[in-house]
């Protein structure tokens, strides 16, 4: 079983700005499963996927030391999103378990790799998908059980509104409202992180 | 507001924020049970049909793939206590005839062990 690269612990300590730390934690929560799925889709075996995930984070860990905020420069989360995109596409493009990543400098990561557009599209799509999943987990605690149940049965499980309304003894309107209130919060949460890969 | 009066923009905002007064809320619920127009307004306030499509696809695929990402946290000690001892240092432990290699995922609803039948 492999765990996070050890570097991630010390990294969190080095991200001093609370806003930056939040960006880093959101990044970790979202990108690990994304890299995992993309690598799996390429047909890599479990151990090789774990290896690739770790290599991406180790290369990002090395780059983080080079982060210097400047008044005119990008925000940390945009900078992180950009080097991450390139690190991930780079690792996936050379995804061969027996191939060492080599030393990757931050300049390598900041220069756009000639990745094929399909991979970049996959990365964007998977990142959006994962952001929705992450957002849903984040906001679940804000709602009471009946509201969450009505949302879950209709929006996630795809059951008809009338059927769920009958089951919980409420009106169809109450179910619509529950679903929309939760979806509104999911949207707000997704928007918090989406600038990371749009930057 | 009677049940026949459609929701205004401000009411939709208050409704989505979960801040509508209980008496008004039950009227809004009744109205939305019958008024397709207001249901559409409520949904469009959150996102267009493309957004809803992406959101629901993402959430539904998550439902089908809950345990796909493994090993991102150390195994919960409580779960390891369920396992019997194993002789092989490469395994976590045993459940009945199964040698347990690792934890596939853990969450509120249960744990998936990755097993190897010896």
TrEMBL record, chain A:
<dbReference type="InterPro" id="IPR013325">
    <property type="entry name" value="RNA_pol_sigma_r2"/>
</dbReference>
<dbReference type="InterPro" id="IPR014284">
    <property type="entry name" value="RNA_pol_sigma-70_dom"/>
</dbReference>
<dbReference type="InterPro" id="IPR039425">
    <property type="entry name" value="RNA_pol_sigma-70-like"/>
</dbReference>
<dbReference type="GO" id="GO:0003677">
    <property type="term" value="F:DNA binding"/>
</dbReference>
<keyword id="KW-0804">Transcription</keyword>
<keyword id="KW-0805">Transcription regulation</keyword>
<dbReference type="GO" id="GO:0006352">
    <property type="term" value="P:DNA-templated transcription initiation"/>
</dbReference>
<dbReference type="Pfam" id="PF04542">
    <property type="entry name" value="Sigma70_r2"/>
</dbReference>
<dbReference type="GO" id="GO:0016987">
    <property type="term" value="F:sigma factor activity"/>
</dbReference>
<keyword id="KW-0238">DNA-binding</keyword>
<keyword id="KW-0731">Sigma factor</keyword>
<feature type="domain" description="RNA polymerase sigma-70 region 2">
    <location>
        <begin position="31"/>
        <end position="96"/>
    </location>
</feature>
<protein>
    <submittedName>
        <fullName>Sigma-70 family RNA polymerase sigma factor</fullName>
    </submittedName>
</protein>
<dbReference type="InterPro" id="IPR007627">
    <property type="entry name" value="RNA_pol_sigma70_r2"/>
</dbReference>
UniProtKB/TrEMBL annotation, chain B:
<protein>
    <recommendedName>
        <fullName>Zinc-finger domain-containing protein</fullName>
    </recommendedName>
</protein>
